User: What shape does this take?
Amino acid sequence: MGQGLVGAIHGFRETEKSRWSEASRAILQRVQAAAFGPGQTLLSSVHVLDLEARGYIKPHVDSIKFCGATIAGLSLLSPSVMRLVHTQEPEEWLELLLEPGSLYILRGSARYDFSHEILRDEESFFGGRRIPRGRRISVICRSLPEGMGPGESGQPPAAC
Ligand SMILES: O=C(O)CCC(=O)C(=O)O
Ligand SMILES: [Fe+2]
Assistant: This one.
């Protein structure tokens, strides 16, 4: 985990994965085609985060040192609510219902000007509707930080 996230995630385990089955590779390719432009290079490994039912992620902006312009996350198992809050104007916010099998893409203003968080079970509501949290697994693809080509990256932290 990169420096920016230390302390932000509670009740989890995680791994960085670079070898996938053929079936999984086909899915990751669909994610990459949907979320990343042809000029974008991805971090060499994919971040897999396993959040327990009581786990949650506090508001943060992924570090620009370890992560480029695009973050794409596939949510599996339990639905959850992701909240985005503008870092300068906290009254500007929105929530996303992340259904299992859904893909979110953070780029542009959503990536840089808004923090993102995954609500804990007690706070897990979407438009007044309760979204009970169970175990959730996310598979997160990120682009390399700007100016860092695959050749120059050495051993980049695989996640933010
Ligand atoms: O689990 C997710 O979808 C988001 C995880 C996250 O925000 C991070 O690892 O920086
Ligand atoms: Fe994040």
Summary: The beta strands are 9-17, 46-60, 70-77, 80-86, 93-98, 103-107, 114-118, 125-126, 129-130, 136-142. The first strand starts at residue 9 and ends at 17. Residues 5, 47, 49, 57, 62, 73, 116, 118, 138, 140, 160 surround 2-oxoglutaric acid (ligand 1) (CB under 6 Å).
